[in-house]
């Protein structure tokens, strides 16, 4: 009996912590971008309210923060006390140089130190190049950190909810078309994550998010499914869910184009009848190949590929607004 219970625990643990393959786009602090695939566990986010485990398939994007570290903060505070005193230039230079050797977390410590009124010295200020402000500026330049960068990581969940906290990892190993890369966390500004899975029926299940996957979004508006179709291949697409388009007066839309106004009035969409093939706002749409023709899928599409290429999906709207919320769940079945 004990052995049976142990096996159950092991199976559950393996299921919870198993890594999942995701498509990922990294925007680096130096302005470069990397696109590829990686494997990730569910994200364990340490927040001010406790530890939160977020399934990786529910995460859309992460804004990577500077992070904090008590050991580094203690060292930084010691060096800053020297810089904030009337010590000799030699001592200040030594403290200044040591402060610049600390990792990116030192920026958080300096910001906290400078924002505390208790650390404002009452002694007459002596002109020096070895100041806390100059150290902060050099560290930001060293790690390519802007003034807007937050201390915490900010995770976007289900295209709608943001959660701040610390996601602890040292690096991401990315497989790209040019080879395998290992990117340290402190080099990453943000990441977009796309997850797909095979259902028990053989369908491929994906999520398109209204805050990103909009046909009018010139940067990443189309979700690349990594499904390669050959001309004549038969496939079906079904979509469900609801989104709110801030670009269209915060009206709520379904994949078939049905929408509800903020006053609560609902208007029907159009079926996939031949005379209504052109997409309307809120429709799920697809194309085959990066430069392929945009075709309406709506809530259900059944057809065959007109050309060879990779299948892309998106939500039809000519204007992109990142304040959009919600997502569609899309199932693709290859016959």
Main sheet record: 15 strands, antiparallel
Mind telling me the CATH superfamily name of the largest domain? Galactose-binding lectin
Quick one: how many beta strands?
Answer: 21
The helicity comes to: 10-25%
Order of helices and strands: HEEEEEHHHHEEEEEEEEEEEEEEEE
Q: Mind telling me the C-alpha Rg?
A: 25 Å
| Low-confidence parts | 1-17
Task: Give the number of domains.
Answer: 3
Number of helices: 5
Task: Write up this protein.
By secondary structure, this protein is α+β, with helices and mostly antiparallel strands. It folds into 3 domains: 19-65 and 152-194, no CATH class; 70-143, no CATH class; 199-334, Galactose-binding lectin (Jelly Rolls, Sandwich), CATH 2.60.120.430. Helix content is 19%, strand content 38%. The protein is built from 5 helices and 21 strands. The protein has helices at residues 2-17, 70-83, 89-100, 106-115, 132-143; strands at residues 20-28, 33-40, 43-47, 50-54, 59-63, 153-157, 161-167, 171-176, 179-184, 188-198, 204-209, 223-229, 234-245, 251-253, 259-260, 266-267, 284-288, 295-296, 300-304, 309-315, 325-334. The strands form 3 sheets. It has a 15-stranded antiparallel β-sheet that branches. Strands 12-20-17-18 form a 4-stranded antiparallel β-sheet, with no helix packed on it. Strand 13 and strand 14 form a beta hairpin. Helix 2 runs antiparallel to helix 3 and helix 4 packs antiparallel against helix 5. The protein is elongated and about 80 Å long.
